Amino acid sequence: MAYDPELRAPSPRLLLLEGRAAVERARFTLQRRRLLRELPRGDGQPVMIIPGFSTSDATIAPLLSLLNDLGFHAQGWGQGRNMGMRGPVKAALAARLSEMAAAHGPITLVGWSLGGVFAREMARHQPQTVRRVITLGSPINGHPDANNMVLAFRLTNRGKAQKTDVEGFKRRIEAPLVPCTAVHTRSDGIVAWQACLEEPAPNTENLEVRGTHFGLPYNGEVARLIAERLARPDWG
Fold this sequence. Notes:
Elements: H1 12-16, H2 21-38, E1 46-50, H3 61-69, E2 73-75, H4 87-104, E3 107-112, H5 114-125, E4 130-136, H6 150-158, H7 166-172, E5 180-184, E6 204-208, H8 220-231
Parallel strand pairs: 1-2, 1-3, 3-4, 4-5, 5-6
């Protein structure tokens, strides 16, 4: 896709349908036993999951718990509520990633929404510590304003709306030099699904699932995709 100044946020109809996420979370709880039987087992492969904007490790706890019970070594980002990338958060994340990699080997980074943007940049700057990146409905392509959270994000972080850094966004479209899997849903009511795609490259893949944006951490298809890639010995 690359930069597209015409790309827009999802429609009000899709935004309203995000209310289905509550049902998806309940279904994920009911599916847990079946997923534990069916998904690939881990052998301590390390993974860090970075939550989306305004959420924390508590929000992604069901997915963390499932992966740990499957035998993977899954941790959250440990930085409280994700309100955007600030200097202290960036430094703490870099240190946490280095410590995890030193103890367990290269890490698979899974980032939901804004968390996926962070995951890609961490891999870009510390590729020696990252095994692969998996983004879930993350705004990484197309246009930085092609989502329904941009105003809330700006107001939260600066107190008033400011001009979008389009040039910086363009520079970040190219994937980092590690295997990158981008997961999207065409019924995403928060981020335009086209903006969630990686550019075609030998180290990238784009995978579609059914469901909502807010339900991605509670989606059985997503859990399967993550577990399958964690269990792979190599990219492929």
